[in-house]
Design a protein that fits this description.
It is a single chain. The chain is of the alpha/beta class. The protein has three domains: 5-59, no CATH class; 75-260, Rossmann fold (3-Layer(aba) Sandwich), CATH 3.40.50; 265-494, Rossmann fold. It is built from 22 helices and eight strands. It is globular and about 80 Å long. It has helices spanning 5-12, 14-21, 28-39, 41-59, 75-93, 102-110, 113-123, 138-143, 159-162, 172-182, 186-190, 201-210, 228-249, 255-281, 288-297, 303-323, 356-361, 378-381, 391-403, 415-427, 442-457, 474-494; strands spanning 128-131, 147-150, 193-197, 216-219, 341-347, 366-372, 432-438, 462-467. The protein has a four-stranded parallel beta sheet with strand order 2-1-3-4, sandwiched between helices. The structure holds iron/sulfur cluster (2 copies). Residues 171, 173-174, 199-200, 202-203, 348-349, 438, 441, 443-444 line the site of one iron/sulfur cluster (SF4).
């Protein structure tokens, strides 16, 4: 990048050089020169140009070697996706006593209702912004009148198309998501741009490849989230994102609309928390597949409608608890008749319709009472704590909310994740942990050893399921899960 005219002059100016290189900042000469710099129009112009260069460099990809990625068309794939959705729904419907409101979330995930709505919204001039992972502050997107949709996908049917561009040996989530883009399907195709945080190697390189097909912005994530310099760096990323969104949507993010967006998301988090808390007392009230359906519908749905429906759902399930306070099994959504084995699910994201391991677990005498998944509870749980409602105060609160509580394995230390797991095990009286590891996600794979060892010291059994999106290993997984549950049942009987 060539430094522009003002930067060149500034770099040669003796006064600026002195301020830059001076070691003793208490000297009068330094103080006077520094003051002069504040008012110097050349310095101001140079600073402005520097900021502009930095911002452009930080956000936009250079496209020096842009390649053409040819899109695929296959009418069968749409049919296959529909068939898979139908099959998973049929498995869900085998469970009785599911709350009636749950059909709404099924509709969002399987019908074209939301897609059609978004197409219409887009025609009316609104921007649709795709996101990956859980680090992109949706509040900023809503505050500038755009709509966020999370693009992390769980469909096996799109993977083979992605493998024509991406290597086979990367995580299925990345391939599945990219497959939707290659095929020009679903929400991906509606997005005006995509924001990708640099969480893992796969995501970083996905960003570069995708950038040849559509606008992509990167959110640089620090590796050690608890360091002061990491927080400062991340806050700067969030500020830059705000500016970039304002330019893109041509809507200024004011203090007022940011506040409204934070409050809206707060409502979403609070109703979800209330629902989730019920599971502490009534572990059979909602099974994990339904819990994930509810959460994952929020990735795409109109946020206000989702809040309204989830309030309805809460009232519906809460009324069940009033009827059958002492008999969990009466309103079990899982056909469990005896005291269930309570499990906590952690690890790599499980995303609709890849409910393979849940379909197995939830036909045993075990129930998943809590999860620690970025596609599950983690995506809706944390709230933004604002103590200063100025724009800067809101940005700081948002930056910290998206960084500090995160237990993603992309950070160097796993201590926060272990703390969170131990806390949930205690809060939900968990008997054992299921560790979902996606093939070729090294981050989760590597963290397993430490987590297993710590949990063992606490006497908590853990089962690691190393799998991907293909249905091929279903029988093998079934055997392992059933043996594990059987072992837990025997252990409980001996108590
Ligand atoms: S767990 Fe992995 S996929 Fe999920 S949000 Fe974190 S980095 Fe992204
Ligand atoms: S599951 Fe692992 S490899 Fe895949 S996107 Fe998430 S962090 Fe990256």
């Amino acid at each position: 990048m060539k430094p522009n005219f003002w930067i060149k002059i500034c770099s040669k100016c003796f006064l600026c050089k002195y301020v830059r290189t001076s070691k003793d900042k208490t000297k009068l000469k330094y103080k006077v020169f520094n003051k002069i710099k504040l008012f110097c129009p050349i310095c101001r112009a140079a600073n402005y140009s520097l900021k502009k260069i930095e911002t452009t460099h930080k956000i936009d990809f250079e496209q020096r070697y842009k390649i053409e990625i040819i899109k695929k068309t296959d009418i069968n794939v749409v049919q296959n996706i529909k068939e898979t959705n139908k099959k998973i729904l049929q498995l869900l419907h085998k469970n009785h006593n599911r709350p009636s409101t749950i059909s709404y979330y099924e509709e969002i995930l399987t019908s074209s209702l939301r897609l059609d709505e978004l197409k219409e919204t887009k025609r009316n001039g609104k921007k649709i912004i795709g996101t990956f992972c859980i680090f992109v502050p949706e509040e900023l997107i809503y505050a500038c009148g755009a709509i966020p949709v999370r693009l992390c996908a769980g469909s096996y049917d799109t993977i083979s198309y992605a493998e024509e561009v991406l290597p086979r040996d990367i995580c299925p989530l990345i391939k599945s998501s990219f497959g939707f883009k290659i095929l020009g399907l679903s929400y991906f195709e509606l997005c005006d741009l995509v924001i990708i945080p640099t969480t893992c190697d796969g995501k970083k390189k996905l960003a570069e490849i995708l950038n040849d097909m559509m606008p992509v912005w990167i959110l640089e994530l620090p590796n050690r989230k608890n360091l002061t310099k990491a927080k400062t760096f991340w806050l700067e990323e969030i500020r830059t994102l705000k500016e970039k969104l304002e330019k893109f949507t041509k809507i200024k993010i004011t203090k007022e609309n940011l506040k409204q967006a934070i409050k809206l998301l707060h409502q979403r988090q609070m109703i979800f928390r209330k629902l989730y808390q019920l599971k502490k007392t009534y572990p059979l009230l909602l099974n994990e597949r339904d819990t994930l359906l509810i959460i994952q519908a929020s990735f795409y749905d109109d946020i206000k409608r989702w809040i309204e429906k989830t309030n309805q759902l809460y009232n519906e399930v809460y009324s069940l608890t009033l009827d059958s306070k002492h008999l969990n099994s009466k309103f079990s959504t899982q056909n469990i008749t005896t005291q269930p084995i309570k499990l906590l699910l952690t690890g790599a994201p499980i995303i609709w319709p890849n409910y393979k391991i849940l379909n197995i677990i939830e036909t045993t005498q075990a129930t998943i009472v809590a999860d620690e998944l970025c596609s599950g509870v983690r995506s809706l749980y944390d709230t933004t704590e604002v103590d200063d409602w100025s724009t800067e105060g809101c940005l700081r609160a948002l930056a910290y909310k998206y960084l500090l509580p995160s237990t993603c394995p992309c950070f160097t230390e796993s201590n926060d994740r272990i703390d969170k797991l131990l806390q949930s095990i205690k809060d939900f009286s968990v008997d054992a942990v299921i560790y979902h590891s996606l093939r070729l996600c090294q981050l989760y794979d590597i963290e397993f050893y430490k987590i297993k060892t710590v949990l063992k010291n606490y006497g908590i059994p853990i089962l690691k399921l190393h799998t991907d999106y293909s249905p091929e290993d279903t029988e093998q997984l079934k055997t392992r899960i059933e043996a594990f549950i059987e072992m837990l049942k025997n252990k409980n009987q001996l108590k």
